[in-house]
Amino acid sequence: MDLASRMKSAIFAGIVGDALGVPVEHSTRQELSLCAVKNLLGYGRYDQPEGTWSDDTSMVLCTMESLSRGYDLEDIAKVFCGWLFDGKWTATGYVFDSGLTTFMALERYRAGKEKARQCGCRTDDDNGNGSLMRILPAALCFHTAPIEPFLEAIHDISAITHAHPRSKCACGVYSLLVRHLLTGRDKAEAYRAAVADASDYYAAREAFAMEMAHFSRVLSGRIPELSEDDISSSGYVVDTLEAALWCFLRFGNTKDVLLAAVNLGLDTDTTGMVAGGLAGTCYGLGDLPEAWLESVARKAEIDQVVESFVASVGSR
Predict the structure, then answer these.
(1) Are 67 and 76 in contact (CB under 8 A)?
(2) What pLDDT digit, counting tens, does each position of 149-184 carry?
(3) At a CB cut-off of 8 Å and minimum separation 6, what does 76 contact?
(4) pLDDT of residue 189
(5) Model's pTM, two decimal places?
(6) Could you say which of 3.10.310.40, 1.10.4080.10, 3.40.640.10, 1.40.20.10 is the CATH number of the domain covering 3-34+52-314?
(7) Which of 46, 114, 207, 271 could be bridged to 118 by S-S, CB 3.0 to 4.6 A?
(8) Which residues contact 213 (CB under 8 A, 6 or more apart)?
């Protein structure tokens, strides 16, 4: 795959992962072991048609739309507000899923209480996966930048809603892996390189160094050696990062990665989105059923946004 193909595949694999997970969100692993997801479904948890995606994809599309015009945190926050409060970039015309931390941060921004850089929530309780689920376009957009400005941009875009250092770290580790995968590296090699970069960067910065204990399993490089029972798939940002990495590193094609991610249960749509971004970057979409891609809600409009975004990245 060339670079443009990797970027498009990353985005679409993430969106398909989100859509696979929506009907079974909050289902337990035990429930899914009895009736595993094997295909794209509809009318499950949220009673939405097949191919419906959640807030994960909405915010990814918002981010791509804004970054296609250039990098402006205020513009990204405004587009996010257009989604949350006006239904822009929703699958079916209205918002049916949103995290509390995201809502509180964007409500502050809409009310004019804070600028985009300061409006994110920053307590220990604000470490859900609401910025990790949407950080993929930022990782793609800035992948050629030196590591310091690359991670500063990732952290700032996370902080629009999730400003705690732990959430920023999770987005940073994930984005570093995407960055290395875009070069065409083998996934094991890319994981080792991302771990080395993250360890060097975060250990040298006091605000982040204090968070490193939470990422000990990720930074040990041993995530793929863990058993499924060792992996949690809750909405906690570290759990989501670990679950996505485990699925990506254990399975050998995009379809299998996505199905493994969704069948872990609980926050199925976000695990699917985050794991899908990695799998799409590495493997492409060739092994995904064409019907899955074509069933994605608003596919033609998404195609246009993706094309514009990828072209804008290529022109920088």
Answers:
(1) yes
(2) 999 999 999 999 999 999 999 999 999 999 999 999
(3) 62, 63, 66, 67, 116, 157, 160
(4) 98
(5) 0.97
(6) 1.10.4080.10
(7) 114
(8) none
